[in-house]
Write a structure and sequence with these properties.
Alpha/beta hydrolase, hydrolase, alpha/beta, peroxidase, 8-stranded mixed β-sheet
């Protein structure tokens, strides 16, 4: 792991592969860390790409900032890391909250992306009920820690049948959730509750996009992915069978197979 100081915060990240390769930057979701992208980092560094996977502030091995962390802060951190690495433009992807950070990054820095990957995410703003839920959950995580929450949501993050048949994957997801600092998770929940509406933004995207979703995702169902696919001017939609909210870990071969032609297309400028 390397570290960079971005806006006064230590950001942990991995930067692997050919430094002259096409850069692919992947943003993790909540409440995870950069290790969720290991199957993709392994696959695409071997294929010649430069793969960058940061820990968001408040997560993994990055610095923790209590309070409220808006998606725009995560997006600005991402741009700051790119500056640190000397990268003008990247293929940018994210899962769940990471996908919403990607949307905010495009809102702020559209000239800095060559392609976009949206995995198991959605562009709508939070509802009134959702704002209450996220803030209440933030209070709970600060009071109780992450363990109870992790146990409650594991069979939504990972499909129940995969929890049973893929214990290594389920164990990895549980460790990431349990290891997340409650202060960081709570700050992100409060910020995410105030996120803007990205639905119209998607119609303005001028680069190719890939939308990927697990067929059995309850958090961001296939209908959300289909909506994004319709909104984006140039997009491909791939539904991963046998997966829920984390198809990149539940079905890494199928997820990587979806990314492979998209990345080649963006790399070649087709």
């Amino acid at each position: 792991m390397a570290t960079a100081t971005i806006d006064g915060i230590s950001i942990g990240y991995d930067d692997k592969g050919d430094l002259d390769g096409t850069p692919l930057l992947l943003v993790h979701g909540h409440p995870f860390n950069r290790s969720m992208w290991q199957p993709q980092a392994d696959e695409f560094t071997a294929a010649g790409y430069r793969v960058i996977t940061p820990d968001l502030r408040g997560y993994g091995e990055s610095g923790v900032v209590p309070g409220i962390t808006g998606l725009e802060v995560f997006a600005q951190d991402t741009a700051g890391l790119m500056d640190h690495l000397g990268l003008d433009r990247v293929i940018l992807g994210g899962l769940s909250m990471g996908g919403q950070i990607v949307m905010d990054f495009y809102r702020l820095f559209p000239q800095r992306v060559t392609g976009l990957i949206f995995a198991d995410t959605f562009p709508a703003p939070e509802t009134a009920e959702g704002k209450v839920f996220r803030n209440t959950m933030a209070d709970r995580l600060l009071a109780e820690g992450m363990d109870g929450y992790a146990d409650e949501v594991i069979d939504k993050m990972v499909a129940p049948y995969n929890v049973a048949t893929l214990p290594t994957v389920a164990g990895h997801v549980l460790r990431m959730m349990r290891g997340t600092p409650p202060e960081g998770a709570a700050a992100a929940l409060r910020g995410r509750a105030e996120r803007p509406d990205y639905r119209d933004l998607l119609t303005t995207v001028s680069v190719p996009a890939l939308v990927v979703v697990g067929a059995d995702d309850e958090y961001t169902p296939v209908s959300d992915a289909e909506f994004m696919h319709r909104q984006l001017p140039d997009s491909t939609l791939v539904v991963i069978e046998g997966a829920a909210h984390m198809p990149n870990l539940e079905r890494p071969d199928e997820f990587n197979a979806a990314l492979r032609p998209f990345l080649a297309r963006v790399q070649d400028g087709r």
